[in-house]
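lol forgot to send this yesterday, sorry. struct tokens for the thing we talked abt
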């Protein structure tokens, strides 16, 4: 995957950890499989805009906050 997916995944992981959530619990909140959440955080998959909004809502932030500034 490209740098964008990897940087987005890093930002999602940082935000999740800042909330004190395990990957398992966060995956349940987002209604995705834990292994899929791991692939998102490692930047191995490109997520849809809909999924980005769902993740942002689960993190109580805006989707733009998760997007990397530069790639």
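and heres what i got for the seq, position by position
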């Amino acid at each position: 995957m490209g740098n964008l997916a990897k940087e987005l995944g890093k930002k999602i992981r940082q935000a999740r950890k800042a909330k004190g959530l395990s990957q398992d619990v966060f995956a349940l909140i987002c209604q995705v499989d834990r292994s899929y959440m791991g692939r998102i955080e490692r930047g191995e998959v490109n997520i849809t805009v809909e999924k980005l909004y769902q993740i942002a809502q689960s993190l109580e932030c805006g989707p733009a906050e998760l997007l990397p500034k530069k790639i």
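The chain has one domain: 3-62. anyway ping me if u want another try
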